[in-house]
Amino acid sequence: MLDVFIDAGPATPVTPISAGILSAWIETASPAHAAWAKAQGFKAKAGETLALPNTEGAIERVLFGLGDESDPFIYGGLAGKLQPGDYVFDPTPEDASVALLGFALGTYAFNRYKSGSKDDAPKVRMVVPTGVDCHDVSRIARGIFLGRDLINTPAADMGPADLEAAAEKLHHRFDARLSVTTGDDLLRDNYPMVHAVGRASDRAPRLIDLTWGRSDAPKITLVGKGVCFDTGGLNLKPGNFMALMKKDMGGAAAALGLAQMIMERGLDVRLRVLIGAVENSVAGNAFRPSDILQSRKGLTVEIGNTDAEGRLVLGDALAEADTETPELLVDFATLTGAARVALGPELPPFFTKDEALAAELEDAATTAHDPVWRLPLWAPYDSWLDSKIADVNHISDGPFAGCITAALFLNRFVTETASYVHFDIYGWNAKPRPGRPVGGDIQAVRALYHLLTKRYG
Ligand code: BES
Ligand code: MN
Ligand code: ZN
Q1: Whose CA is nearest to atom 17 of ligand 1?
Q2: Which of 193, 229, 311, 336 to mutate to test the pocket of ligand 1 (most atoms within 8 A of CB)?
Q3: Which atom of ligand 1 is nearest to the CA of 402?
Q4: What are the pLDDT digits (tens) for 48-79?
Q5: What positions does the domain Cytosol aminopeptidase occupy (predicted)?
Q6: pLDDT in tens, 158-198
């Protein structure tokens, strides 16, 4: 269990109050507390706290405003508002598991590079409400924290080898099998597009392949875009577009975070994680616009823009995943700016031909409060990828439907697997929200975890 949770013990009560029930609470409160709340102007606005003193002036209870109760992760703002100490919900929030997860996610801090005393002991702890599976809540939070840490770490310290090290950690912890193909071995082992994208960096590209679980259990394969830094390559990004590109391995971070949740939970699946870990750099040996790449699938791919590198790395990884025809194939990728134009940073689109999976996912996303939105693999746009001199173009030449054409490109590499879904994630919180501080974030993973535990738990 996370160290911000405790089983019991003396703790200060925290009373959640929505704006709608504030006047009712004031009527039942002691005259002193009612007067104090009024005098302090407490309105039960979302995230507002008020400490109620006892006659000695010590904190007897804390009020926590829920506003109109529209944000399920409102409890993510709680830890930051409380004085150090132990707390207990009184009464227990309606959806106590979500409240506790929100609280846990709000305790995340990325302090690897903060000098001075790194006091790791949690300052605020919460008693686990009865009936809440605190181990599952902890497992979900730890998976998210792992992913956030990977994204937040600057590219100088999170290169392809560091992503490999993250996979290696999981391999040791869960007794998984790990195989990594690095540098020119990618050519020998037929991952030509992973090699082409990553070869200009002096940090060698690699294909990370982790498997775990009973070999005859249902096969679940997660593929992650692990572009540790995306300069755009020879089609160099302007500075302001490059600024955040340490997060371009957000898909790999999501896959590793979800993999950790699955293995910690011990789901009865045969899990495989495939990560194309590369740095999209500029050098004399960089791949070029107009180059034609070989691919693992056998298709020749004409390069229109070296900044559309993610789909190349994924194409080879997906082709390998597809040879096993897993029961479910998922990829996560910070793939296109177009997905952000379409739906904004907080709502990742997903693409699948599997109608039943789409419905299952929408359901899981709602339950897990982890929103995603289906966009179409619009077949008529597939011809936009036609090339005059190669089997396929990796981008279309117009400005339209960029996330759809990217998804259609990926689908060229998955021809045997019936149930395949691609998530185009943003992987970043630009404005702080409760439980989601500014920085790396892991999207769509809680929805998938919910789906998988429902299926295989
Ligand atoms: N990693 C980027 C996509 C991206 C940019 C995601 C910003 C999230 C925020 C990707 O490799 C890329 O550069 N895509 C290009 C593709 C284009 C050249 C066809 C894009 O979306 O502009
Ligand atoms: Mn790019
Ligand atoms: Zn990229």
Answers
A1: 308
A2: 336
A3: 19
A4: 999 999 999 999 999 999 999 999 999 999 99
A5: 305-312
A6: 999 999 999 999 999 999 999 999 999 999 999 999 999 99
Domain-by-domain residue ranges, the chain? 5-132, 154-456
Alpha carbon 371 to chain centroid distance? 12
Contact 272, 210 (CB under 8 A): yes
Q: Is 424 in the pocket of ligand 1 (CB under 6 A)?
A: no
Distance CA 346, CA 428 (A): 9
Nearest-atom index, ligand 1, CA of 395: 19
- Closest ligand 1 atom to residue 310 Cα is 11
Catalytically active residues, by annotation:
237, 311
Fold agreement between 5-132 and 154-456: no
| Residue with CA closest to ligand 1 atom 22 | 337
Q: Which residue has its alpha carbon closest to ligand 1 atom 11?
A: 308
Tell me the pairing of strands 12-18 and 49-53. unpaired
Q: What six digits make up the tokens of 55?
A: 């006659």
List residues, by chain if needed, whose CB lies under 5 Å from ion ligand 3.
227, 230, 248, 310
Residue whose CA lies nearest to ligand 1 atom number 9: 337
- Convert the pLDDT of each residue in 388-441 to its tens digit: 999 999 999 999 999 999 999 999 999 999 999 999 999 999 999 999 999 999
CATH code of 5-132, in short, is 3.40.220.10
> How far does the centroid of ligand 1 lie from the alpha carbon of residue 426, in Å?
10
pTM: 0.98
Question: Is the domain 154-456 a CATH 3.40.630.10 member?
Answer: yes
